[in-house]
């Protein structure tokens, strides 16, 4: 039997919208509000953008994160209610995800290190297509990709930007990453690849002075990169809580059937 006081100390964070701030005031009046460092659980009130910010902010804390939808897009959120919150937290199912670690080196030799929960994406910075060389586990797999860019997505991020550029949806518990081109010009029919989540992905930018490329890990950007290294960071485990029947695994499965 679960400890009834397991999630007694709750830290609330909220987006800036009126809806989110009203929800924050209601919940704090009802349950109090702890500092995240002193809390058993962090409850995020907003949309997926706020949820991603909360996951990043608490990435190394080991504390479970539970989201309630008070924003625009709410794929990562549970339904909002002020009732029986502690009981809902006790009954919630946990999903554990590992973020991607991006190490991008720019043309000046500066190294940019960031984590991504959804994806690491490379984009052309000008009107000219990017020319990219792709290596997997330090073995060349594609000598040249001409495209607007390319991304590496986690299962959690596979239904986000990855899906919008025709990438595959990956079940949340699958030990896979999606490598997906963005508007590939050559090879024209290449749709990308599924990689084991142990893969070490290296993307080298060809003609980086003439055809500049930016690398973005969720919302952290490095510009004018010449080499980007990406790997799943198994040293960090992020714990997310979802109501029974509305797990992230179920939502990703439903997306594949257009539900």
Condensed summary:
This protein has 259 residues and is an alpha+beta fold. It has helices at 18-31, 48-57, 85-91, 161-164, 248-255, and strands at 10-14, 41-46, 65-69, 93-97, 100-106, 111-116, 119-124, 130-136, 139-153, 176-186, 193-196, 201-206, 213-217, 220-222, 225-232, 238-242. Strands 5, 6, 7, 8, 9, 10, 11, 12, 13, 14 and 15 form an 11-stranded antiparallel β-sheet that branches. Strands 1-2-3-16-4 form a 5-stranded mixed β-sheet, with helices on both faces.
Description:
The protein has 259 residues and is of the alpha+beta class. It has 2 domains: 10-97 and 236-255, Rossmann fold (3-Layer(aba) Sandwich); 100-232, Sandwich (Tumour Suppressor Smad4). The chain contains 5 helices and 16 strands. The strands form 2 sheets. Strands 5, 6, 7, 8, 9, 10, 11, 12, 13, 14 and 15 form an 11-stranded antiparallel sheet that branches. 41% of the residues are buried. The mean pLDDT is 94.
Work out the strand percent. 35-45%
- Total domain modules: 2
How much helix, percentage-wise, in residues?
10-25%
Order of helix and strand elements from N to C terminus: EHEHEHEEEEEEHEEEEEEEH
**Which residues sit in consecutive blocks of at least 5 with pLDDT less than 50?**
none
- The class by helix and strand makeup works out as alpha+beta
Total number of helices:
5
According to DSSP, the number of beta strands is 16
Q: Give the CATH H-level superfamily of the largest domain.
A: Probable inorganic polyphosphate/atp-NAD kinase, domain 2
């Amino acid at each position: 039997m679960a400890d009834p006081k397991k999630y007694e100390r709750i830290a609330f964070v909220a987006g800036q919208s009126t809806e989110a701030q009203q929800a924050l005031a209601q919940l704090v009046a009802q349950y109090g509000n702890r500092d995240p460092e002193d809390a058993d659980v962090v409850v995020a009130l907003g949309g997926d953008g706020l949820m991603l910010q909360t996951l990043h902010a608490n990435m190394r804390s080991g504390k479970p994160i539970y989201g309630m939808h008070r924003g625009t897009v709410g794929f990562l959120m549970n339904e909002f209610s002020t009732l029986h919150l502690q009981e809902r937290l006790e009954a919630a199912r946990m999903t554990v995800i590992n973020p991607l670690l991006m190490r991008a080196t720019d043309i000046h030799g500066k190294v940019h290190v960031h984590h991504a929960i959804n994806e690491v994406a490379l984009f052309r910075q000008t009107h000219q297509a990017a020319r990219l060389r792709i290596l997997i586990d330090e073995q060349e797999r594609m000598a040249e990709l001409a495209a607007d860019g390319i991304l590496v997505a986690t299962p959690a991020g596979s239904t986000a930007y990855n899906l919008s550029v025709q990438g595959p949806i990956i079940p949340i518990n699958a030990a896979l990453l999606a490598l997906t081109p963005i508007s590939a010009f050559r090879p024209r029919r290449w749709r990308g690849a599924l990689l084991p989540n142990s893969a070490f992905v290296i993307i080298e930018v060809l003609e980086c002075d003439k055809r500049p490329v930016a690398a973005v890990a969720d919302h952290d950007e490095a510009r004018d990169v010449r080499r980007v290294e990406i790997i799943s960071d198994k040293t960090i485990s992020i714990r997310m809580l979802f109501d029974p029947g509305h797990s992230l695994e179920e939502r990703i499965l439903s997306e594949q059937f257009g539900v």
